[in-house]
Write a structure and sequence with these properties.
Order of helices and strands: EEHEHEEHHHEHHEE
Radius of gyration: 17 Å
Structural class: alpha/beta
Number of strands: 8
Strand order of the largest sheet: 4-3-6-1-7-8
Amino acid sequence: METNITRWWWIRHAPVTIAEGKLYGQRDLPANVSESHLFKALSLALPLEAAWIITPLKRTRQTADAINEEATIYPNYHIEQDFIEQNFGEWQGLSWDELHKQAGDNFHKFWVAPANQSPPGGESFVNVINRVGPAIDRLTSEHQGKDIISVAHGGSIRAAIAHALGLCPEKALAIMVDNCSLSCLEHVDGPGKGSSWRISCINFMINRFPQ
């Protein structure tokens, strides 16, 4: 019989429209939160009582605020540095064409083995997993048996799924994480197998279904 379930609700931030077609990574760019019906639908899907976690980048706070304004609740946010997006270093702000011209052979190496390769001055996806995983374990322990809502980034959510399922980094990079999508991961403390993770949904897009 299950004794404790800590439920993580992961939401990728709303689109960063002014960076369309460019690699923005850790650049602190604003989100487009104009689609109020989408945030209303997210607010109805989420638990009313939960710990809220955002990252230092404004697009996650703006997305969380848009959801909570629709729910008319105003929780305190915990800002988690370890959930920030992957740092693409000198490549941030470049279009794909600019990146290909500037990076040369490094561009090819990065996309052949993207999980282990780091852009100049940046970090690899393996690095992202190595910081996201311990932060999840810490916060799961702090909020054991409760709901945790984390508005984060595509890279950190893929890392969270990899951590939960024990996926190799290359496999985790194949997971789609759309803007404003919802992924629910549950950490179960119970008898038998003891602590384990299970997946309720990944990349669930509320706006794909009739309103």
